[in-house]
Specification:
SocA_Panacea, 6% strand, 142 residues, Phage-associated protein, mainly alpha, 7 helices, globular
């Protein structure tokens, strides 16, 4: 099983700095949330074991947030080992990035605030894998 850092690193590695693409901690948190939710919907298994919590600005993986808490864009990783991602995982992550990576951090913020996993979880509490799976099953076509 991957961890949240592996998923985050995959997304960060997709950034094309030459094209002016940037990823903030806020946007990264939302991409990781969508990856977890969609993977739960498709496989009934978490993509990574770390918990997501409902924070004021939406779903957050606290350990990941604290790693990248700083102003500005997160630089792409210098070392990427894509062999740790199986084909199915890469397909999920690529689809999440294609669908959600096009949106700004604030658009993703607004989207997550309209979704039941965040809306139905008190701020500061863990968003259950079950709540995410149940919601995202209504959003993905299998």
């Amino acid at each position: 099983m991957l961890n949240c850092y592996d998923v985050a690193k995959y997304f960060i590695a997709q950034i094309d700095e030459d094209a002016g693409d940037l990823v903030s901690n806020l946007k990264l948190q939302k991409l990781v949330y969508y990856a977890q939710g969609i993977n739960l919907a498709l496989s009934d298994q978490p993509l990574f074991p770390e918990a997501l919590e409902a924070w004021i600005h939406g779903p957050v993986v606290p350990v990941l947030f604290h790693t990248y808490k700083r102003a500005g864009a997160i630089p792409p990783p210098g070392d990427m080992d894509f062999s740790i991602y199986c084909v199915q995982t890469r397909e999920v992550l690529d689809e999440v990035y294609t669908v959600f990576g096009q949106f700004s951090a604030w658009k993703l913020y607004q989207m997550t605030h309209e979704e039941p996993p965040w809306k139905n979880t008190p701020v500061g509490h863990e968003i259950s894998f079950e709540a995410m799976r149940d919601y995202f099953k209504t959003q993905v076509v299998t």
